[in-house]
Amino acid sequence: MNQYSRRPAGRPKDMEKREAILQAAGRLFIEHGFERTTMDAIAAAAGVSKLTVYSHFQDKEHLFRALIARKCEQHFEGRDFEHLGTLPPGEALTRLANGFLGLVYHGEVLSMYRLLIGGASQPALQNRAFYEAGPRPTIEALARLLSGYSARGQLSVENPERAAEHLLAMLQGCMHQRALLNLEPSPPTATALKEHIEDVVAVFLRAYAPSIERA
Q1: Number of domain units in the chain
Q2: Which pLDDT band, with edges at 50, 70 and 90, does 71 fall under?
């Protein structure tokens, strides 16, 4: 069950309504921004009652968080990386990198980034909600994966959370910044992404290689 829903939506009809609400909210947030999008407008766009919206989501912030969490889960291994610990580090990180870049270059996600950046001069509820539902759980899940590799001697990671941040920051890099600024087509070509991922994973594995391999 998504942590941002008020109750389980186990019945097919409930799940359909929840999905319709999330899709409508995603469109309206991008078109009008968080502050100007109302729960009434979301209900109308989803073809449900306002009461139905509130039966699934406590308030607009929780709805926004659920939307961000769903996008991350769709593209990024459900953000449950524990099963990847059975793979060699390079293979697991390459797989995660492909999912992560698929997420950050998704059209709706890029639009959401631009929306949040545009309003970042004034700390806003949606900015914190975005971070708490998107980047933070992703960093924490990746840190646990890296910690496991370190415990088994496959990597040497003293600060797993910082290492997770390093990896994600390298993956986004200037290429993602240029996409946000509409300075080049998005997403980049498959060849460009593949080369970028290979470079980043290689650098990361060298930086966090077991001490014996560095000697």
Answers
A1: 2
A2: confident
